[in-house]
């Protein structure tokens, strides 16, 4: 049968949140279905010209209308390119019918819902200039009265999609006109005057708006002024109308849900919020909706959840005009201002009312609680409530059609009740008491409801505001049974967009950083809840809970990730922090047994580590166990059929065995082998949830923790949600959340999208050392094709430095032309060993890649986009290389979504000319890294300790070459530093001094060359003997000088050349080598030659003095670097445990730290407590990162 034939009850049978998704059309539906014959008409447009037949549009729309606008039908038309090939190209604003207008809206809605392609590309490609006329026709159609409720719902969905697409200029121009300042004609005059008085710029704009819109002359101007106010009135009227219906159908629910969704979208974006929020506040939309009969119905649960989001954005802590977030003090000041307005009105308007006088003189603390306000307003006459609403809440009852109708209904009901009472007295005169006058009026349901509504409007306006941050702090991080199995908050697997969800949206624009964080908090919380639900629905049925003889629950099955829970004991509840109600910490011990568990699974349970999350459930097996397929159960049916009563989460801090040994130590070297089968998991419970559970127990509900009987774990890589949520929450509570100035507005979606480009910032670098980025001179010329001038001297070899300078002023929004001057330098010789030679880049980067590298080195935001294999990772690696060498004091953080992506990047960085001691890889993914070295935190600590031993061994060998006590020099790092100062630096300074004396040609080599000492002369022997024999002589005794003393006294006086001596063999050989040119004076005098005996020989080639001097300097640089490394090892020597060494490694020593975004969230609080700071952030595969 042809697709699209409507079922008998298509119009009213659907539920508000359908449990099954819409079927996607098959290829048969597209090629030979109901609309295949029509599709052949516009399919020719790809080949030739197609004639437009309006009757085709009418027939197709009639079929859609009869079928109840089934999504499958609309999808089929979308697959057949109905919009881009037929509807939009032939749209004519003067001739378009209602069917044509509605068909376009339906197809745009379908494109947005599908999300596979941009919904607006077809509009923009084939005449976006027509969109303004189309948008006006949509507004006219809404007000025409021709639409059914379902058609109006589709139009509301169309507006939702439009206001969510403000990045499209033609959509933005139409939408923002509806929410402009001209809509303030419908504001309460008092409210409008106050808003204009609080903003210095608005009064001037308002005068212009008054001139243009006081008497609108065109239909478009009328819509711009009146449409949003009239739309709000219509929504409120529908709420009252639907409340009188006996049954609330799916169409009515869908209409109201989409209406609230539209209101949310208008408030959660600053361009639409700025002038629309005062209008919504004047109508008191949320309070009136919540007080309606519709909101009290059980099927309106989703509507109430959406109203909660609307209420949140209505009271969002932001200055609507400037967009600046409001501080806690500013929110409090606004609250006080509202209460002062109330007190002034009470004092001026009702001087004779005792209740109003009491309100006027009361303090804020006594007045601003909900209970106090209800007590003061509850018994007030309607006339007083109406005046207070008009002057305090800016709601004039006499000017609101819906409220006027409610008041008239209340009066009519009261008159009817009084008339009925009077008739009753006449019918039964014996019970009547005519002598006593009636003191109280007859109360009716209508009057009571009207009164309660006015009181609620006053209370919601005046009660003490609950700050969003406080609400977030009180929110539990772990999902409970109420959240996990709520299909409105956590939809089923095949959600198709057919109905609204009570979820925040990630737009292109956000109100504040706090707003962005909160939306991510809620979305990530619900996303993780969805995954948790899937795991629980997999494990609980495997445990097969059944009733035992005593009526309890036992588990007759087994599951890999679940075990029966023996007991849970709360061990410590810390007092709340100052100003808070929730305990600061709740600790507990969870006991379970591994008896009968397979060895592999036992190992998995013993792998529980700190920060892992486990779930505790209370299962009460139903009397008749469920034997059907779990997949057939809906979300809300699962807990009923399986007996899930409660669900709580907790975070593991330690895992202990039977003997109390900790078996969860993070350092593998210190981890112990577990003993026995019993395990104790020390856990942290959620303080907010624990507090809520205690309050519920005090109210008489069931105690939760004593009834928990099942423990469920999840895979570690998938179980990090709690840390991420805690990170987001801590960011929201932190007043110093760091966002750079150049990124703030761009991040929120305002201003110039390119504002964070490096050449637009004042911090752009004019000189950059590109090192080995360019392979040769031609590579430089190729890399800057747009440069005005490139000056490259001849015969330059890398490494290169480039200097950039402006060569004029460019066009607005484009980079000004620039000239480039290139220079080169020679890298210093760092030592004689092969590993001392730097590794060089071999990639010939393209001009676009070079621009990305240049941008990455500069301050600012750089986004590198490209398909696989285009060199994105190579570009990022070169950026890391340049940042490391150009900014030696800066720290670089590498972040990626997956361990695989991070390891690919890290492996290439390991191959760079960067010492491995500065590299660190955090997280569990280190096991997957294909590297010989261990770059984990513990691996790097062990590496530094081993490196210390190796370096001190070299110091010991160096000391031996000097004839110094090697054990003393290499005993500790501090000893080695003293040795370097007193022996190494001294010898190097002496070497340079001797070079200066000897000269480059070595002419004075005999003055400085050290000759091996010969046998001591007789005079010296006699002197030594005499010192030995006279050692005990008195200092005061005088002694006659003998001949030996005379000889000794005369020795320094005799000139060196006075006694002709034969030149030593060493000196002769040195002079001979100098004359032949086989050696230079540098190699003859070099003091560290014996130490470098293990280097490739010959150490000095003797080609020239300068060449050998460079080799000697390189050797000294090697020794300097050796002692620099020893100095870096000094801290690891002083710190006595692995924990402190690991923290020092992260915060101080490591310069390139890689981690996944998940690990960053897990350890953020630890890093912040350690005062961890970084200067550069590189995110690999950043489009995959959805967490904050």
Walk me through the structure:
It is built from 47 helices and 17 strands. Mean pLDDT is 85; it is low at 1-21, 435-439 and 1015-1059. The chain has 1188 residues and is an alpha+beta fold. Helices cover 49% and strands 8% of the residues. It has a 7-stranded antiparallel β-sheet with strand order 3-9-6-7-8-5-4.
> What is the total tally of β strands?
17
Roughly how many Å apart are the termini? 50 Å
Q: Helix tally? A: 47
Unreliable spans are: 1-21, 435-439, 1015-1059
The strand order across the widest sheet is: 3-9-6-7-8-5-4
Task: Give the overall pLDDT as a whole number.
Answer: 85
Globally, the shape reads: globular
Helix content: 40-55%
Short overview:
With about 1200 residues, the chain is α+β, with helices and mostly antiparallel strands.
